[in-house]
Amino acid sequence: MRMIATLLLLVVAALDGALPAAETPNVIVIMADDLGYGDVGCYGATELKTPHIDRLAAKGLRFTQGYCSASTCTPTRFSFLTGKYAFRHPGAGIAAPNATALIRPGTETIASLLKKAGYATAVVGKWHLGLGDVPGPDWNGLLKPGPLEIGFDRCFLLPTTNDRVPSVYVENHRVRNLDPKDPLWVGNKRPGPDHPTGTDPEVRAKLKMNWSHGHNHTVHNGIGRIGYFTGGHAARWRDEDLADEWVGQSIKWIEQHKDGPFFLFFSSHDIHVPRMPHERFQGKTTLGFRGDAIVQLDWCVGELAKTLDRLGLTENTLVVFCSDNGPVLDDGYQDGAIPKLGKHTPAGPYRGGKYSIYEGGTRTPLITCWPGTIEPGVSDKIVCTIDLAASMAAMTGQTLSADACPDSFNVLRALLGKPDAAGRDHLVQQPNRGPTLALRVGDWKVLSYPNAKPIKSRTYEKSKGRYELYNLADDPGEKKNLATQQPERLKEMLSKLEAIKTAGSSRDRQTVGILHSDGSATPNP
Q: What is the pTM of this model?
């Protein structure tokens, strides 16, 4: 199988010169959670150290215009896997604890594409894309469909997020270590008046981390959660151990598949709330548990890199480091993130963060590293995590069907740092779900809101008005709204956004073209 994949790669290389390497690379995608553009050293952070992520950037390509497609987790992860904008898919907002499988069997994904190319595939870490079928997940039985039905050979999961119930591991189709004599129940209502919650004064007084808003239902490990659950005590995890578990499971799986090729989606829960890093990382920064969680994430990256070195796989592995959305400080818990922020700027020079369609919500760290193939450097090409599916299909010599990965573009040459490479010419950005959307075309960006009401969110403040228009070349911080000064351009941008929304696919790019900062336009080839 390895030989077949290698031959496919050589054919692709011969056709378009994309890949001069002699072997099909292993692929590891490391997706951080709530990590902002300015949260790591190689992107300008000075108040904490991230040597392993910085080393990855020094050996690879650091993108200054790398994006995720949405500013919240479930939509970005859906789009990364399927190559489809989440606003096109009903119910693709932030998944509830009892959400069923959002990505249905038969959907083409980056995992299914690589599996067809002969790759062993695994996802380890946060899932938050639903499990099982209606009327809800069978937490005490088989949890399917799930990752194994959409291209993954193995999964070891945090089924929702660490602030949502249930606080258990899912291994392949079952809750790990579940005692049938202590069945697991998950619901959205308090199961009884005696069930302790974070709203009970006597319980709240004993919490190891207090909540600021929400996050006050069932208490586990001294922390309130979203939603209610009972039972499954032998299966429950401790927040402080999650990173160690992800790393341990990943290393074991890599060792088992070292003869490759393999695809690992390392889906970190850092830096998501509740931020409760392992004790050995607590106090490592002056930024509180949020900064300590970033240091823990950096350690995870280092452990994976050391494993590749030890197994002699570094020069045959493409590593992509990214984030699912921008940063947020108080996202429901009083963990010191705001009072201990100091000089740190989580979103770097950009406006907004998680939940917003300003640049801080979707422009995040994005690094590609493949020693011996990718020349170290910095790229200003526009690339997005949604493009990884089409790019990996191209890398392995596969042709996408008409309905597969409809919004994913082949930007492989940009990801590999080829001098003649082009990145994206346009990108739709969304928060949790539509109808609020933004469209970037060239240097221009339009933000479209459902109404004109001002918004004060956890990461941004929106002024009155339905539309905002910015020239990112002149105004990367999105401070000068040009909507009233450039009505014709606003109209044109909104028309292009509407065309993309109604087309059902971004693959026909003739409707978009490139708008330059000087007002000129270039149609797509």
A: 0.94
